[in-house]
Amino acid sequence: MERFVFEDASLDPWVYKFVLTTVLVALLANCIRLALSLHSYREVIFPDGGTLIAIPFLASMSLLLWQKPQLLRRAVIIIFLSLILRITANLIYDLFVPQPQFDLQLLWLSALMLLTYIAPFVVFRRKVACVLALVMLGLWMVLTGLYMTIYWQTVPMRETLVVLSQVYGIHCIVIIFMALFVRLRRLYLRSQKSVSHMAMLAHTDVLLGTPNRRSIQVQLEKRVENAAARPFSIVLIDIDHFKEINDRHGHNTGDEVLVEVANLISRYSRSVDDFGRWGGEEFVVILPDCAAMDAYRFAERIRASMETYAFRVGQVTASFGVAEFQWGDNLNLLLKRVDDALYKSKKLGRNRVELTT
């Protein structure tokens, strides 16, 4: 069963909705067919009893898909195989047992055939789907050819040949269309994945996996716009003597220190806080609904934790600047105030927290 893998190797919601909707529509169509048969065309529309079998089968499949979406793959394979068996049996019956409404039977059967061609392209990989669709088409064309050979002298073959040629011609077009559609859909999904990946890289620090400066700046702009309704504070963090760590231990070790510091900051941050790398050895934490003194205490907890943390390179400390958004601030002014606080922290000896006024 390893060959039977869903397109793009995933059960996306589109596939599930398509299959469930198709099964429900087929169930409704069979119910309508049954009602019409009971009304006036019983012997014409389902002399083989196929509709009576299809209704409970489709109802059970609908219920299964509704209650257990995780069984989508098994359900589709069961439906697919049952469709092949039913269509083949119906085709043999309709061709070799005289029918008063042959064209009507053929129209109904043709619709089921189209559904069977579409199913593998939704479920299986494109190459497997093409093979299955062509095998089914070939099987049904062989049965039709056998019928025309046997009854060539006993039926109005010219009209029948025209009808069957049109039916199978449409089927070939549908198979080609589905092959192209699946190919284009795969290319579209790949392009969407690439776009999403590029967007993530544009707003994510590659080393730390945290938001980068561009992403944090976007968040700050939004916070400034909504500051009247939801005040906030920011904390700017700079690792002390980080250049010496890189020079003495190498850039790989320096990267490890950055990761450890980022983990420490993340450990103390709330789920509502925005935290990211500002650049180099600098980090920014945005604290919504947080007054200046609360932000100061938050920064002090991180500072104390870093001071006692067992880094591989020995003790690593950081300087902190804290600023609360004030009425009349814009983004540039707020960043200048917090940067001034960080500068003051470094000027006064590092490994300390300074709160801007």
What does this structure look like?
- This protein is of the alpha+beta class and 357 residues long.
- The chain has 11 helices and 5 strands.
- The chain folds into 2 domains: 7-200, no CATH class; 213-355, Alpha-Beta Plaits (2-Layer Sandwich).
- The protein has helices spanning 13-45, 50-67, 72-96, 102-123, 126-150, 157-202, 213-225, 242-249, 251-268, 292-308, 331-347; strands spanning 232-239, 274-279, 282-288, 318-324, 353-355.
- Strands 2-3-1-4-5 form a 5-stranded mixed beta sheet, sandwiched between helices.
- α1 (13-45) runs antiparallel to α2 (50-67), α3 (72-96) packs parallel to α5 and α4 (102-123) runs antiparallel to α5 (126-150).
- The two termini are 69 Å apart.
